[in-house]
Please model this.
Amino acid sequence: MAIREELLKQNLNLGRKYTHEEYMKLNYGDGVPRLELIDGEIYFMAAPSGDHQEVSMNLSREISTYLKGKKCKVFAAPYAVNLQQGKENDTTVQPDLVVVCDPSKLDKKGCNGAPDVVIEILSPSTAKRDIGIKQRKYQEAGVQEYWIVSPEMRAVQQYTLKDGMYFANNNMDDEMVTSTVLEGLKILFEDIFPPEDDDENNQEEI
Model:
């Protein structure tokens, strides 16, 4: 993996804790690298698949359209979100999509503090982290709404923060996702996921 080789060239010591400032200096080419810092530890991020990217672009388009004329902004990865600093627990992640409604949290390097909405799109290499440790970090930081989107299952699991804890939204159906934080945002599943017959058509063409 090229990024591993580059990191080794820079003598990155994966056995020690890193700070947010150190993480932000790990710049490989175009902006913040595809790495995450969780409780001071560096995690590698694999390149997203085609389906992953298509779902991300579809969601970004739908949310951007909804936010037109509103104060909230949507940002897509790579985009640094600084959730926590200090006491060897520095955590800076790169969610697939975030919505931030407080402009004071934004600077040229990313978001400082909890976004209002975080969306993670699952891939085989990140699913365990997205559903486990990152979900816990989003909850602790106070992210009001967390979406876990599975391109493979064509499903969206949505969590809303109540009294410091995430509760699954059990009112969702299999055709539409509705935000509880962004009032009025409704996105049809057919506008999120690629058509199911895409792969079959591509095989026939080959």
In short: The radius of gyration is 18 Å. The mean pLDDT is 86.
